[in-house]
């Protein structure tokens, strides 16, 4: 590679500006973003993104699950494109960086190549994956999961949100049910830039995380069925209180995860009392469980232990605890050659870096099941994510995008 290519750097200010420009779509008063997948705010950011990609000379197409693909031609169009990108949807009280950095960082890579007049040998393709977050429709990362064949497209289209709206109806509602058949836009590999969403890089003063593993995830829908009765006249020993049963289960789950730790976490993120009333003993609660570990055996042990705990607590408290596993994502071992390519780029650029396991799920984890994939992490403030306070520095975001740029260049090759 020529010196001009080796020394190429992205435009940090332009990247920062686009992150903040798009943060207005779904901006919350506390400085975060609420941009649930396939909402009107998601449509706004998608329209912005399509226009920006077209402005950078890319050809945009959309698949039948709404994932957006923006292709930059290469010298050799017989080669598969190198994929790069992430997602633009957020949690209900999300931040400005989760997913967005990787998608807009990919756009910045293309803009940088355009400005420098660099043609790559293989084409490049930015992706904005639909519904990475999984908070409106389960599971998370559903479009990339369908892309790799873990779910059928019809199954995903029929998934419903809490209001009963299907993915299909939501796609039509914002005009993003595209025509590309899911899975037909192929890649030679995929690289995703993301904030770490944890505290390790910041604590160790590292600028770049070279992600070599991703935690596996088990999701469950649960329901506790007790018996509604009068809060004043029902003696304590006679109650079949669904909330108390769930409380005992939640505390037991905490102990299970601690015992199986440090490489195990478990969370009850949603719990909804049916027909709540301050003077009615809760008779029914719907809840969710999220369990994660980078170790498959630990995940199985979590699964067995939480089911045993549910059995014991339901007997003791004379309630029913139903637990239905709705998603099972095994741990990810990212492609060693691509991980090396990320590490080389970080080293050549002179950034302090370390290998790291991703605690969060990512579309790259799905893609890695059918193609080489890798990820680049940058620190986020106090390790906070899935929170409106989520923050990252301009220089770290730029560093991660430079690593993305040079990783992608090493994979796509530079046309001579
Ligand atoms: C996605 O954000 C996840 O890790 O749940
Ligand atoms: Mn994300
Ligand atoms: Mn997220």
Automatic annotation (TrEMBL):
Residues covered by the Peptidase M20 dimerisation domain = 216-316
Cross-referenced InterPro entries: Amidase_Cbmase, Bact_exopeptidase_dim_dom, Peptidase_M20, Peptidase_M20_dimer
Source domain of life is Bacteria
Q: Which cofactor does it need?
A: Zn(2+)
Q: Which UniProt keywords apply?
A: Hydrolase, Metal-binding, Zinc
Chain positions recorded as Zn(2+) 2 binding sites: 98, 133, 386
Q: Does the keyword Glycoprotein apply?
A: no
Record note on cofactor: Binds 2 Zn(2+) ions per subunit.
Chain ranges passing through the membrane: none
Binding of Zn(2+) 1, residues = 87, 98, 194
GO molecular function terms attached to this record: hydrolase activity, acting on carbon-nitrogen (but not peptide) bonds, in linear amidines; metal ion binding
Is Transmembrane helix included in the keywords of this UniProt record?
no
Which family would the database say this protein is a member of? Belongs to the peptidase M20 family.
Record-given protein name = N-carbamoyl-beta-alanine amidohydrolase
């Amino acid at each position: 590679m020529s010196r001009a290519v080796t020394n190429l750097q992205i435009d940090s200010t332009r990247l920062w500006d686009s992150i903040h420009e798009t943060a207005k779509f779904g901006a919350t008063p506390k400085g975060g973003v609420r941009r649930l997948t396939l909402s009107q705010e998601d449509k706004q950011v998608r329209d912005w993104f399509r226009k920006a990609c077209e402005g950078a000379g890319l050809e945009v197409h959309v698949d039948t699950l709404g994932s957006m693909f923006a292709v930059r031609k290469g010298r050799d169009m017989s080669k598969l494109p190198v994929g790069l990108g992430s997602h633009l949807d957020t949690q209900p009280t999300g931040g400005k960086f989760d997913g967005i950095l990787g998608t807009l960082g990919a756009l910045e890579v293309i803009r940088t190549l355009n400005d420098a007049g660099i043609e790559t040998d293989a084409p490049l393709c930015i992706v904005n994956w639909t519904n990475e977050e999984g908070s409106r429709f389960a599971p998370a990362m559903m479009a990339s999961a369908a892309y790799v064949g873990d779910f059928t497209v019809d199954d995903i289209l029929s998934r419903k949100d809490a209001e009963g709206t299907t993915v299909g109806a939501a796609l039509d509602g914002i005009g993003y049910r595209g025509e590309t058949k899911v899975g037909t836009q192929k890649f030679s590999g995929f690289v995703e830039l993301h904030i770490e969403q944890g505290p390790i890089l910041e604590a160790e003063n590292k600028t770049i995380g070279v992600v070599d593993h991703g935690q596996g995830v088990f999701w469950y829908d649960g329901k506790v069925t007790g018996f509604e009765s009068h809060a004043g006249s029902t003696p304590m020993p006679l109650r079949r209180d669904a909330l108390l049963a769930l409380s005992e289960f939640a505390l037991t789950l905490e102990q299970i995860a601690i015992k199986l730790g440090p490489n195990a976490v478990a969370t009850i993120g949603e719990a909804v009392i049916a027909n709540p009333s301050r003077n009615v003993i809760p008779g029914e609660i719907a809840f969710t469980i999220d369990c994660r570990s980078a170790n498959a055996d630990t995940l199985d042990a979590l699964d067995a232990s939480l089911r045993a705990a549910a059995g014991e607590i339901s007997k003791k408290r004379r309630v029913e605890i139903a637990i239905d596993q709705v998603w099972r994502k095994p741990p990810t071992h990212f492609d060693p050659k691509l991980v090396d390519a990320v590490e080389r780029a970080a080293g050549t650029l002179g950034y302090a870096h370390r290998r790291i396991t991703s605690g969060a799920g990512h579309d790259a984890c799905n893609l890695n099941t059918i193609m080489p994939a890798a990820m680049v992490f940058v620190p986020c403030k106090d390790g906070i994510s899935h929170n409106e306070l989520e923050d990252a520095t301009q220089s770290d975001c730029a560093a991660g995008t430079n690593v993305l740029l040079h990783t992608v260049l090493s994979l796509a090759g530079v046309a001579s």
